[in-house]
Design goal:
By secondary structure, the chain is α+β, with helices and mostly antiparallel strands. About 50% of the residues lie in helices and about 15% in strands.
């Protein structure tokens, strides 16, 4: 018997350096690093041809070969003593390998072939499991050769283990429970942040929810559970799902950091670079299908690593200026975890880090830690936003109280100023009436006194009317009246400057409106046009009526308004660059807009540098009932 066993062992060693002898006590056995390996660059060798060639095999125990289109063969011998059980399950991974063919030798008579891989429907596999499982019935005291052919457009990685059937069933249950909790946690994160994003109208949380959703879908296929759920009904189902998950997840992660770090405001140039990276990921998502994924996936990993390193540096820079920002610390820690997980995962796929040194689900563990840290950071961000909003509300209440006090003071002073201004104006008119023979210089000074008194009175009217409109204290008193009377009354308020206003002929137009407030609006438009155009240039006033809409158009020949300032004209107290050196409060056009809006009309402003400014007041020719401004 001893001679026979020695001869048997010598025969086995001559065939292969790797023989696994099973023990009666074994319930599971890892086969990682125990396979011999060889590469089939052309992918044309059959199992018999590979077996016949004893050259080209290596026994360095490598399991991962990166993203390659080459076919890889693995060989192993199993020897079951009589005392050990003959029923075993051979489990192979990873679940995303496209095509795996297992050949079990039957004592030199031939090979029993099993077709596996994620391109095979679940129903056609020997056993339905998240990994690829083959049942084995091993003869006693006879070595059995296992040959494995692997081909994939994704990473080529082989993990292998032997299980007793009962232990295999128990492991499947434990995997289902643990991964069920994992996917359930991811789904809760998705729903929570999506709801928060909609509730507070913050797209950062919505982007993050989309990112976690892509990870959930991708991991479900990477771990093999989605193939079971969908029974791998389409040959390329898992390929497409993993491709979409990887590229879209990278795109959303890059977009997420532009929002979290507020790059539009803090790092505008770096944001342009991130947008370019996002465009590249989008291109990969569009074209990265089939065998092309083998070339693009390494680029995607390296690009993701580069983005993470740059973002980590940016976050560290922000932390130097704001070391007490708890939210930012969570972001940095999340980056560190993500970078380590991605780096180790990438190095393991290309074979630089032995798989047997790492837990099978290290990448998922690092990703869940990354997601937990990011969720905590976003949670603190929500708290911070809530505190800022509360503070803003308190400041708004305080500002409103101060504004009420200022309004009361302005109203009181305005009323107090009216009397001396009226006296000055009346005195000037009396002097003009009594002194009919005045020198030219004296008349000019008298004109300036009257003009100044009128401008101060108009300014007081602007402040009082603006305050009343803002507070909603003015009630429209619409009445039907002739616009020609309104125009004459407004022109009379400009004294000598009225000569610059050219009124185009217009037919009789009767308009139902609050003519007093409309006079204030028209006066402010004309005053602005006179003030912001050359002293001798004309100001044109045109009145038209079309389709029950009355339009009052004031157009000057001034320097015009730049496009970046035009949108702010009409904002209370805003004055553009062209107003430098000109008198004014910045309330006139704002009050015009408010008065016209109170009538249900609209004010439009057209201008460009060097072309003058055109203001159009459009009003319906009927006001059905008095409205509160």
């Amino acid at each position: 018997m001893a001679v026979f066993l020695c001869a048997l062992l010598l025969w086995v060693n001559s065939a292969s350096a790797h023989v696994v002898v099973l023990s009666p006590k074994d319930q599971s056995l890892s086969l990682n690093t125990l396979f011999e390996h060889r590469t089939d660059a052309e992918g044309t060798l059959t199992v018999d041809a590979v077996t016949a060639e004893d050259e080209g095999w290596d026994d360095n125990g490598q399991q991962a070969f990166g993203y390659t289109r080459q076919v890889h063969w693995f060989r192993l011998h199993l020897l079951r003593p009589t005392q050990a059980s003959g029923d075993w399950v051979l489990e192979l991974g990873r679940p995303y390998v496209d095509d795996i063919r297992v050949y079990v030798g039957d004592g030199g008579k031939g090979w029993t072939e099993y077709r596996l891989g994620d391109h095979q429907p679940v129903a056609s596999r020997p056993l339905a499991s998240r990994l690829f499982a083959v049942p084995l019935n091993l003869p006693a005291d006879k070595p059995v050769t296992i040959m494995i052919r692997s081909e994939s457009t994704s990473a080529t990685v082989l993990t292998a283990s032997l299980w007793r059937p009962a232990a295999f069933a128990g492991q499947q249950s434990r995997d289902g429970l643990l991964f069920g909790v994992y996917y359930g946690a991811l789904l809760v994160v998705v729903l929570f942040h999506f709801s928060i994003g909609l509730w507070i109208a913050d797209r950062t949380h919505i982007i993050y929810a989309g990112f976690v959703l892509t990870q959930l879908v991708s991991y479900a296929f990477i771990n093999g559970f989605a193939q079971l759920a969908f029974e791998q009904s389409w040959q390329y189902l898992s390929d497409r799902a993993i491709n979409i998950g990887n590229f879209s997840g990278s795109l959303l992660a890059t977009w997420l950091w532009t929002e979290i770090l507020q790059m539009r405001r803090n790092f505008p140039r770096l944001r342009i670079l991130y947008l370019a990276v996002m465009a590249l990921y989008l291109l990969m998502l569009i074209i990265g299908w089939g065998r092309l994924y083998t070339d693009l996936a390494p680029l995607s990993f390296m690009l993701g690593m580069a983005v993470n390193v740059v973002t980590l540096a940016v976050s560290a820079r922000l932390l130097l200026g704001h070391p007490r920002q708890v939210t930012l610390w969570f972001y940095v820690l999340a980056f560190v975890v993500a970078n380590l997980g991605l780096l180790i995962h990438t190095l393991s796929l290309i074979g630089w880090v032995p798989l047997y040194l790492l837990p099978e689900n290290l990448f998922q563990v690092s990703s869940i830690a990354h997601i937990v840290l990011l969720s905590a950071g976003l949670f603190y961000r929500v708290r911070q936003l809530d505190q800022e909003r509360s503070q803003a509300r308190e400041e708004a209440i305080s500002a409103s109280a101060r504004a009420d006090g200022q309004r009361s003071l302005v109203a009181m002073l305005s009323h107090e100023f009216r009397t001396p201004l009226s006296m000055i104006h009346s005195a000037a008119q009396m002097v003009r009436f009594r002194e009919t023979q005045m020198a030219t210089g004296s008349l000019e000074r008298l004109d300036r006194i009257e003009g100044t008194a009128r401008r101060l009175s108009a300014l007081i009217d602007v402040f009082l009317a603006s305050d009343a409109l803002d507070q909603g204290k003015i009630v429209l008193n619409p009445r039907q009246g002739d616009l020609s009377v309104l125009v004459e009354r407004v022109l009379a308020q400009f004294g000598n400057q009225a000569r610059r206003i050219r009124v185009s002929p217009f037919p009789p137009i009767r308009l139902t409106a609050d003519h007093d407030l409309l006079s204030v609006a028209l006066r402010n438009c004309l005053a602005n046009a006179l003030n912001y155009s050359p002293p001798q240039s004309p100001v044109h006033l045109t009145l038209t009526q079309t389709d029950q809409v009355v339009s009052l158009v004031v157009e000057d020949e001034g320097h015009g308004i730049a496009a970046d300032e035009l949108e702010n004209i009409g904002t209370p107290y805003y004055r553009g660059k062209s107003s430098s050196g000109k008198t004014g409060s910045g309330l006139g056009i704002s009050m015009v807009r408010t008065i016209i809006a109170a009538h249900g009309g609209a004010m439009t402003l057209e201008s460009a540098p060097g072309t003058g400014t055109k203001i159009t007041l459009s009003l319906k020719d009927e006001v059905s009932a008095p409205a509160r401004a």
